[in-house]
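cron nightly-structures :: item 1 of 1
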Amino acid sequence: MNAARVLLLLLALPLLACRKESAAASTPEKPAPVEAGSAPLITIEPELLRTGRVKVGLVERRLPQGEWRLAGEIAPDEAGQADVGTLVSGRVASLEAKEGMRVARGQLLAWVEAPEVARATADVLRARARAAVALRKLERQLALEAQDATSKNAIDEARAEDHMARADLAAARTLLVNLGGQEPRSDSPHALAARVAVRSPIAGIVSERFVVLGAPVSPDRSLFRIIASDRIMVLARWPETFGPIPSAGATAEIKPRTLAVESTSDRCTATVFGHYGVVSDVTRSRTLRLAPVAMDAGASCGWLVPGGYVDVVFVRAVSEPRALNAEAAPVAQLVLPKQAVVEIKGVPAVFVPTGTSGQFQVRAVRVHAEPSGDLVAEAGLAEGETIVTSGALLLKGELLRAELASE
């Protein structure tokens, strides 16, 4: 009989606990701060504070803020990328650069054998020979003129022939240079291999190579793609439902989409410097162009890599009053970070430092969410108090683990 009573009592305990919790949750009374000594305490390693896994901050009184969070893509700016090729057809004779290789401006990337350049080189050689002959003829006529042994017509013809020969040589040289060839030396007696040097127009990294040794090339085909990793911009799509697009000079915070980048030295903002003036018929958005800038002195935003994705966050003050009266001015309130508030046994709570290093006290609070997404404290906290602003979930886990260990 005694064993049966004990069993019934054990089965009834969870039901009684559920009723108490539901009754407490339905009670509309304002929760007050838990008195010192009665609230649960949790102690963590000071290393968590030093490494930033747990952060503390002050409770602020300000206007609630909202945010526009856009999907952003990191891309090279207009002068930060280049497709490199040739203006003539031919075959790749040698490759001097590999993918991933960092190159300087003007550095040799490849040699291309081009028959068209060979023809242009031959034209230069012929034009140079004609120009030399015309010059000697003119010199002879001028020498005869000094002896009164020639006519004016012969001298004029010699001068005209010299001018035409020099013009033909300049034209042939211009064509050869623009095709990428080099004029041969005047003392070269042998046949020359007509090769075109392919050089990088910018300093950067060889991100792609589109040819192999011996492959045919043509003017409409790129051989290399060069990306300058230090000349980038962020492209963000602004939905037309968001209203007026931010003007030039507006700032936003750039947030990574990976947990690997959390150091405060890597925080970056971006400034709007333009946008595409059309709405995409696919995404129904306009594309903003932003220039990234490091938030902290000495930082470089080095984690922004072309081709990567980020979140672009614009912060705005919420001007819509909560009252029905549209003329009512917005009121400053105690605004809490979303990461600061956790639920403990169904009650919103924050963690408050006790003054002892690494020790925190649980404080019950009453909050409501603004339409902007901010959490506003109605009771339980005062302006200027210090609370855990980041890492509250970690403290909650430590608290639950300590409670389970004590049972």
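cron nightly-structures :: done
The chain has four domains: 27-63+331-406, 66-78+230-317, 84-114+194-227, 116-191.
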